[in-house]
């Protein structure tokens, strides 16, 4: 018995890292997650906007899984994994350079993300339209922009703020239930003389007013928490309203995915810090 114990002790001394090395081996990524990239690198996939990638996936992906709502789900999931990996690399690079957001800012942003997801889940619970799966597959990607923009704002060099105008416009009033008729033009078709944030708020009020009272109050309260926790800045406020309008819009409004992401990119691509999203 003593000889056996001595032999085991020697083996452990000679090969101390065998068991530990096996425990540290990373879990193998499911083959489907790599296959869904269709042989393309993440950099190549992210050079397309999500709508372009989905169209490419449906054309070149494994048939018949590439078509229909299931194909859209797989395509957007593959795009999302690449997008998250890019954001993670940016976060790590900022941390190593000691330029990343401080702990308090990260906690505040985490609270914002939680509120945004809670609002999204509440909207999803009220949506029974046939196209809901496609809409919320794109919404999952749309939401990822906020995290990337958060870190990118610390990576981009700050620029001098432009001098304020001599007569700044007054702040827009909060939207009400009757701010705009539900059958009126959508926010992307708003009149040119209305600033984008006011148009987005009015459109939000019109969309929210179409819900039954109990759902309207629940969604309004959830969205209020999103606004309370959002990162500061008019650009972010506009992006949040546009995200909400995308979720709340009925299928009849037919907001196309490609212009949606182009608009979102323009929202963040503002001074003093440039943030490029989806492309």
Features:
1% strand, disordered C terminus, 2 strands, mainly alpha, 279 residues, globular, two-stranded antiparallel ribbon
Structure description:
- Mean pLDDT is 73; it is low at 4-27, 161-186, 256-260 and 262-279.
- The protein is mainly α and 279 residues long.
- The chain has helices at 2-14, 17-24, 31-35, 42-46, 50-60, 68-96, 103-126, 132-155, 196-209, 213-229, 234-248, 257-268, and strands spanning 269-270, 273-274.
- It has a two-stranded antiparallel sheet with strand order 1-2.
- A hairpin with a 2-residue loop joins strand 1 (269-270) and strand 2 (273-274).
CA(first)-CA(last) distance: 67 Å
Instruction: Count every beta strand, where a strand is a DSSP E run of 2 or more residues.
Output: 2
- Low-pLDDT ranges: 4-27, 161-186, 256-260, 262-279
Task: Classify the oligomer.
Answer: single chain
Q: Note the run of SSEs as H and E.
A: HHHHHHHHHHHHEE
- Indicate the percent of residues in helices: 55-70%
Broad structural category: mainly alpha
* Averaged pLDDT: 73
CA-based shape? globular
Put simply, the count of helices is: 12
Radius of gyration: 24 Å
- Biggest sheet, spatial arrangement of strands: 1-2
Strand content of the residues, in percent?
Answer: under 5%
Largest sheet: 2 strands, antiparallel
